[in-house]
Write a structure and sequence with these properties.
Elements: H1 2-27, E1 42-57, E2 63-77, E3 81-90, H2 95-101, E4 105-110, E5 117-124, H3 144-147, E6 152-161, E7 166-173, E8 188-199, E9 202-218, E10 231-248, E11 251-262, E12 265-277, E13 282-293, E14 296-310, E15 313-326, E16 329-343
Antiparallel strand pairs: 1-2, 1-16, 2-3, 3-4, 4-5, 5-6, 6-7, 7-8, 8-9, 9-10, 10-11, 11-12, 12-13, 13-14, 14-15, 15-16
């Protein structure tokens, strides 16, 4: 019996003395088997949207139209690539008005952290407040429909940061809109730089844009942002703009001033919008715009209310009035638009 106890004691002591070496071998990286290299991560998400407008307009019959029944697919492939695809199932928009709202289809390449990204495909032009203000889902459009004549255009863009608060975008596009051939071979070059200022509890984003290239000029008697619009000509456009987005307490002010020329003929205007929240779900909005080009000019005012019915469901009611003049003719406009927007 004593002999057996002596053997057990010696064996236990040997295990205790050998344990550190065993643990070191287990913890040593060289002792661990090599894991196979992970496959590139792939992920995507789909967002569906239904946008219905009911409109009452002066000298026109009342209408109820589906402005958009669509899906937006966004995703990532590996660490360096992401993409976005906009799929319209149905829309009452036609012609170039359709191209101002539908056509996002691009791939983004991201290199190392802090390096600029490269975007190839059809995307929103980086001019004025377009990069930050999503007009696609709103009844009131900004100046782009007349100042540029395009919103989505095919080409290539480089985007990045110059320091922590300064962002830049440079794009070269065709100037003829999505899913259209380059009808003149002249490229449109667009550049924008913006800086965000922290002003106490408030925030101001200030941007400067420039554009040069051949783009369509629309008749001021038509509304190209919501319908086909009448193209007067394709002009060599030069544009500069200053845009601002000011978060002042509960208020939000957006503004844009644009100037330039169409084949040497002056073109200029401004756009201003003020938003005030009444509650978490409800907000008021008011604004004005002016635009002048070689064919005439327009002035417009609007006021509206927005209410979030529930998660992903929004209702808007907007009253617009204005005056347009072109080629010796003038027209007063009055329009009331009710919008029901569902996103999920």
């Amino acid at each position: 019996m004593k002999r057996m106890l002596r053997i057990a004691f010696v064996g236990s002591l040997g295990l205790i003395l050998a344990a550190p070496g065993i643990r070191a071998a287990e913890e040593s990286p060289s002792a661990a088997p090599e894991e196979p290299e992970a496959a590139p991560a792939r992920s995507y998400s789909i967002r569906y949207r239904l946008d219905v407008h009911g409109m009452v307009e002066k000298d026109h019959p009342a209408t109820l139209e589906v402005m958009a029944a669509e899906a937006e697919v966004t995703g990532e492939v590996g660490q360096h690539f992401s993409y976005a695809v906009q799929i319209p199932f149905y829309t009452s928009m036609e012609g170039r008005g359709r191209g101002m709202h539908f056509g996002n289809l691009y791939v983004i390449y991201r290199g190392r952290l802090g390096e600029p990204t490269v975007k190839v495909g059809q995307f929103v032009l980086p001019f004025g407040n377009l990069p930050y203000y999503e007009t696609h889902t709103r009844p009131v459009q900004t100046l782009y429909r007349y100042s540029l004549g395009a919103r989505i255009d095919p080409g290539i863009a480089v985007e990045g940061y110059l320091g922590k608060e300064t962002e830049f975008q440079v794009a070269v596009t065709t100037g003829n809109g999505p899913y259209r051939k380059d009808n003149n071979g002249n490229k449109v070059v667009t550049a924008r730089v913006s800086h965000t200022f922290e002003l106490g509890d408030n925030e101001l984003r200030l941007g400067v844009s420039a554009l040069r290239g051949k783009l369509p000029v629309f008749s001021l008697m038509s509304e190209p942002g919501m319908s086909g619009g009448d193209v007067l000509e394709f002009s060599d456009k030069n544009r500069v703009a200053v845009d601002a987005e000011f978060y002042w307490g509960p208020y939000l002010v957006r503004a844009e001033v644009v100037a330039g020329d169409d084949n040497g003929r002056g073109a200029y205007g401004h756009w201003l919008q003020f938003s005030y929240p009444l509650s978490y779900r409800t907000s008021l909005e008011a604004g004005m715009e002016r635009w002048s080009q070689f064919s005439g000019g327009l002035t417009g005012y609007w006021a509206g209310i927005e209410h979030k019915l529930s998660e992903g469901k929004t209702a808007r009611l907007v009253f617009e009035t204005g005056r347009r003049r072109e080629s010796g003719m003038s027209m007063d406009t009055v329009r009331i638009t009710g919008q029901f927007l569902v996103e999920f």
